[in-house]
Each structure stands twice: as C-alpha cells, then as structure tokens.
Amino acid sequence: MRKIILIILLTLFSIGLFASCESLKRFLNQDLEEEDYTMGELYADEYVKEVPYVPTVSEEARRSGNVNALGIEREPGDNEALYDAIQAWMGTPYRYGGNDKDGVDCSGFVGHIYRQVYNFNLHRVANDMQQDVILISKSELREGDLVFFTNSKGKVSHVGIYLKDGLFVHSSTSRGVIISRLDDKYWSKHFYKGGHLE
C-alpha cells in the first residue's frame, strides 16, 4: 500500500513540475500551432461570415440550356468534369479536419476534387499544397488552379479552386462548400497566390 501511495505522489509531483515549466509549455504550444492543430489560435480570424455568390446567366443561355451544373454559363473549353465534381459537394458543411460529405475543411475538399478530376494527390494541409503547384499571380489564374489565402499572421491557411470570371469554390468556415468572388473584400485582402499543376 505504501508503494502505491508513493508512486501516486511521485506521479503527481512530476506532473506538477512539468506543468509549471514555462519553457515546456511554450514548446508544446508552438509545436501545436505550427502543425495546424489549434484551430482556436491559428484560425480565429478565418471565420468569414459571407453570403454565397449566386452566378447570374443570360436569359439566352438559360433558354438554350447552356448552363453548367453550378448554374454558370457554359463556354467552349470549360472542364465539365470539374463543375460536375464540385456540384456533388455544394452545400457540404464545413468541419475542421473533415474529409467527407458529412463535413469537410478547405484542403479536404480541394484534395477530393483534384483526385477525382485531375487524378492528382495534393498534400493534406493548405500551406503544404503550395509544394504541389507552380505559384502564379492572380492575373495568370485559369480554370482549375488553386487559390491560396493567408490569415492575419501571414500564413497560408485557406485554399480553394479557381473557376472563371473571378469566381472560386471552397469550403467556407461559415457556409461550407460555396462559390465566392476573389474581389470580395475579405478574400481580396487575404489573397496570396494562385497555383497550377505543371
């Protein structure tokens, strides 16, 4: 019985000692933040309350049926497989770390689309996806390119897929998978780079 009490006391003492060690706390917090596990700190400013963009098409296109699955007017050369794949995810709720239609985060959504449409496996985290593409400016964007956004700390923390005419699709923290405009006040301010496959 004495041994058990002694072991319990030593364990509690050790926990107290390590819990009060400031350098250990700083190390653990820094490590967690760098690995994107602490949503509260890293993504605090990423909750964007937005109204989904609703594409408008001409009456002529509507009558002729020249509208793709997302309600965007078709143009020659549009990647219909891309729009069809995206349509299947529209409205899926946002869930940090989510990777299916019960809830998906931005990089999970983009990863699924790229595997299905381009047969390409991207890194899992938005910041790491930059390694998979050639970074380009906003003026060079074309259909299917990635669009990267930074948080207030300047770190890439959000990713979407460029469509056309200034539109991109992503898993928004407030609305799930939606279409947004690059010239929206928030997204324009936080736009970092685009990226396309070689």
Number of helices: 8
Structural class: alpha+beta
Unreliable stretches, pLDDT < 50, 5 or more residues?
18-45
Strand adjacency order, main sheet: 3-8-4-5-6-7
Helical content band: 25-40%
* Termini Cα gap: 68 Å
CATH class (first level) name of the largest domain: Alpha Beta
Indicate the proportion of strand residues.
15-25%
Major sheet size, sense and barrel closure: 6 strands, antiparallel
Q: List the secondary-structure elements in sequence, H or E.
A: HHHHHEEHHEEEEEHE
Short description, anyone?
This protein has helices at 2-19, 22-34, 39-42, 59-64, 80-87, 106-118, 126-129, 185-190, and strands at 99-100, 103-104, 134-136, 146-150, 156-162, 167-172, 176-181, 191-196. With 198 residues, the protein is α+β, with helices and mostly antiparallel strands.
Describe the model:
The protein is an alpha+beta fold. It has two domains: 2-34; 42-196, endopeptidase fold (from Nostoc punctiforme). It contains eight helices and eight strands, in the order αααααββααβββββαβ. The chain has helices at residues 2-19, 22-34, 39-42, 59-64, 80-87, 106-118, 126-129, 185-190, and strands at 99-100, 103-104, 134-136, 146-150, 156-162, 167-172, 176-181, 191-196. The strands form two sheets. A six-stranded antiparallel β-sheet has the order 3-8-4-5-6-7. Strands 1-2 form a two-stranded antiparallel ribbon. The model is unreliable at 18-45 (pLDDT under 50).
